[in-house]
Specification:
Layout: H1 2-12, H2 14-26, H3 35-44, E1 51-54, E2 61-66, E3 69-79, H4 106-121, E4 128-136, H5 144-150, E5 160-167, E6 175-177, E7 180-183, E8 185-194, E9 198-199, H6 209-227, E10 235-243, E11 249-250, E12 253-262, H7 265-285, E13 289-295, E14 301-303, H8 305-318, E15 324-326, H9 338-343, E16 346-352, H10 378-395
Parallel strand pairs: 3-4, 3-5, 5-16, 6-15
Antiparallel strand pairs: 1-2, 2-4, 6-16, 7-14, 8-12, 8-13, 9-11, 10-12
Length: about 400
């Protein structure tokens, strides 16, 4: 079977996939500027029949593999940036740079994508169509995918797009996905409550914004549970309140900071309207003013059911004791592959990367300073990406 051939081919490149992952892991880069990481990728893929595209906004690049004949166009994506945190994994190839760590698996994503490029380049003569390998910086809140789209690096747009994210506390080698909402949108909430400060011993001569801010926090929690259907999850978390300068001074204002997570564009709009209404009216009831601001984050990641069907078929064909699970519910984390999925039908999948046979539920999760993954799962990830590409190029949406 083709999928078995792809897995065998990916395993033949295991040493190169692992070496690239470790080289990237040891020298993590942040945000939209990942030149050393991209250089490592290009060096690892040197000699392959790839056409490279780069743009002005970031260090993202797309490598295009053209088949022997015309056909469909498919995109595979891997992200390259790390997180601003110290590493405490104890790995021999741990980060050499203080305050930076690949704690979200992007080093593995990039290495697996490079592995898929190797596998598919070897089959160039049998490919009808094109494969676009999207090496993307700036996933950790920097909108790298959006910048690459705006730079035209994905033009003409592919017919389908697939991405893979490791999950260090999920069973080894298990692939997961679901049609519809897979991950949430993530927007930043800012509220300023303005009153009139004065001496803390005479609060009756002031309009104290602090209890008003506290009331808004509680009102927002009640709003989420009472206004919105629990069947479609929504999260509003106020994570920071800042006010005052001394124990005996009532301040003029309070600044509040938080996050909003929703699973559809419709819910995203509705919850913003509701937050504004609650904050402004609670403040008004206490003779204060509330200014509400929203900073757009990533949209919700919405998977196409046809792409999920392809992923399940490929994952099952890869074999193993537990090759596939349909996720029962979305995760409220966010992912900027959502920008691609707004324009192109496709899907993001999760790959369990706990060591085989361990208590995977007890493994450190994503964004932990002690997060590790079992590198032996990476050829499976490369084969899965390659398999999704080949399946779509050969059969389309079926």
């Amino acid at each position: 079977m083709l999928t078995e051939e792809l897995l065998t081919a990916a395993r033949s490149h295991e040493s190169e996939i692992t070496a690239l992952r470790r080289a990237i892991h040891a020298e993590p880069e942040l945000g939209l500027d990942t030149p050393r990481t991209l250089a490592k990728v290009k060096e690892a893929l040197a000699g392959l029949p790839l056409e490279w595209r780069e743009g002005p906004s970031c260090t993202g690049a797309v490598a295009v593999l053209k088949g022997s004949s015309a056909g469909r166009r498919v995109l595979l994506r891997g992200d390259m940036d790390a997180l601003p945190m110290d590493e405490h994994s104890g790995l021999d190839f741990a980060s050499k740079i203080a305050g930076r760590m690949h704690a979200c698996g992007h080093d593995a994503h990039t290495a697996m994508l490079a592995g898929a490029a190797r596998v598919l380049a070897a089959r160039q003569d049998s490919i009808a169509g094109e494969v676009m390998f999207m090496f993307q910086p700036g996933e950790e809140g920097h909108h790298g995918a959006r910048f690459m789209l705006e730079d035209g690096l994905l033009n003409p747009l592919p017919d389908a797009a697939f991405a893979l994210h490791v999950w260090p506390n999920a069973p080894h080698g298990r692939l997961e996905g679901r049609a519809g909402a897979m991950m949430a949108s993530a927007d930043q909430l800012e509220i300023t409550v303005r009153g009139s400060g004065g001496h803390a011993s005479m609060p009756y001569d002031t309009v104290d914004p602090i209890p008003v801010a506290a009331e808004i926090v509680l009102a927002l929690q009640s709003m989420v549970t009472r206004k919105f259907d629990a069947a479609e999850a929504a999260v509003v978390s106020v994570t920071k309140l800042e006010a005052g300068s001394a124990h005996n001074i009532i301040p003029d204002s309070v600044d509040m900071l938080g996050t909003i997570r929703t699973l559809s564009p419709e819910r995203r709009r509705a919850i913003r309207e509701a937050i504004t209404r609650v904050a402004e009216n609670v403040a008004r009831a206490h003779s204060c003013e509330a200014e509400v601001r929203f900073i757009d984050g990533f949209p919700a990641t919405i998977n196409d059911g046809r792409a999920i069907a392809i992923g399940e078929t490929v994952a099952t064909a890869l074999g193993g004791s537990n090759p596939w699970q349909t996720r029962p519910a979305p995760t409220m984390g966010a992912e900027d592959f959502s920008y691609v999925l707004e324009k192109v039908p496709g899907a993001m999948f999760f790959l369990g990367a706990a060591a085989d046979g361990v208590d995977w539920k007890g493994c450190c999760g994503l964004h932990s300073s002690r997060m590790v993954l079992d590198e032996s799962v990476m050829p499976r990830g490369s084969a899965f990406l390659a398999g999704c590409a080949m399946h779509f190029l050969e059969e389309g949406w079926g």
